[in-house]
Design a protein that fits this description.
346 residues, six-stranded antiparallel β-sheet, five-stranded parallel β-sheet, 10 helices, 11 strands, 42% helix, globular
């Protein structure tokens, strides 16, 4: 009897070449793949076949990828949906994120990127289903408890916020991490095996940030932190106590734009934090017996390990933007709706 496939995947694209390329890549990795040349044909397949993931082109003749997405979400809201998009379609990508897209792949895509995004979204989908199907059991004594436990609805909203932030900043990866070392949500092409190491390094880096702020007479840790390397730049932002947003972007992306969109995303996530109380409560110390992270050891290894994660050397650029940074003007930010409901005195 042949081995059971890892998952059933439906690829939808009006390009036969792209359908074949994705089918070959995914089939060789152990997935069962069906293809459809249009959104209409995809809906017919879904009537008789159960799929674990859909990968669809955004722009197709006839039914568009967003139209297909909306129809799929009406019947199976939890089915993960990944879109394929060409250069210059970021506005459509952001619209798709609001409609429930899990993540996106840019054309031309690499084999590694396809496999990483596919594996991560399937894993996340299984975790959501497992949480809904069984009563959660206490974590093992040797493992620190979650400080933040978000309802499923908020987790889905956080995924949407991170996907939108990734599209707005053209980030390689965007992550939400809690101080206990857990990755609450991750979007992008970072290896799953790298996530625990990255989470630990971010927590250690923020601990150093807090100590530096204290020595300089600050009442709390610096809200924003920035690392610049040869290929990428890493931004981290603190959300209250114990939550950190991490954005990994190409070094050429303007810092000002990243900060504006990152602060907008943190504002949206902070609205959900109040209801995410865990065993220790929001912002409260971890439960007794929780093993402490060895921050001093992690700090000495931080540069080397980040080099391994991102294939480069990283250099801290401090928390203030350089004078040469091109940022959005107040009028531009206001016009884009990034400053909320601020009203100017007349």
């Amino acid at each position: 009897m042949p081995d059971q496939p890892l998952a059933n995947i439906l690829v939808v694209d009006d390009s036969e070449a792209i359908c074949k390329a994705l089918r070959d890549v995914l089939t060789m990795s152990g997935y069962a793949v069906r293809t459809a040349p249009s959104g209409e044909r995809a809906l017919q397949i879904l009537e008789t076949a159960q799929m674990d993931l859909i990968i669809s082109d955004l722009k197709m003749s006839g039914m568009s990828g967003i139209q297909l997405l909306k129809k799929v979400k009406e019947k199976t809201p939890s089915l993960p949906f990944v879109i394929l998009t060409g250069f210059g379609d970021m506005d459509s990508v952001i619209e798709a994120m609001h409609c429930g897209v899990a993540d996106y792949l840019k054309k031309p895509f690499s084999v590694n990127e396809v496999l990483k995004v596919t594996a991560r979204e399937l894993k996340r989908s299984r975790q959501v289903h497992a949480t809904m199907a069984v009563i959660a059991t206490p974590a093992p004594a040797e493992k620190p408890p979650h400080v933040f436990i978000f309802p499923t609805q908020d987790v889905e909203r956080i995924d949407c916020v991170l996907s939108e932030l990734r599209a707005q900043t053209t980030a390689e990866s965007v992550l939400l991490i809690e101080a206990a070392g857990y990755v609450i949500s991750a979007k992008g092409i970072l290896n799953e095996t790298d996530l625990p190491s990255l989470a630990a390094l971010v927590v250690a880096s923020r601990a150093t940030n807090s100590q530096l702020a204290s020595l300089l007479g600050e009442s709390g840790a610096f809200a924003l932190h920035y690392l610049e390397g040869q290929r990428v730049a890493v931004y981290t932002a603190g959300l209250g106590v114990g939550l950190f947003l991490v954005v990994v972007v190409p070094r050429t992306v303007k810092q000002g734009a990243v900060w504006v969109y990152t602060k907008k995303a943190t504002s949206e996530i902070e609205k959900m934090v109040a209801g995410a109380t865990g065993q220790a409560g929001v912002g409260a110390p971890a439960a007794a017996g929780k093993p402490a992270l060895d921050a001093s050891t992690l700090r000495t290894e931080m540069a080397t390990q980040l080099d391994n994660l991102f294939s480069e050397q990283t250099v801290s650029a401090g928390t203030e933007l350089a004078d040469s940074v091109q940022t959005l003007t107040f009028e531009e930010a206001l016009a884009r709706g990034l400053l909320g409901n601020i009203k100017l005195d007349e």
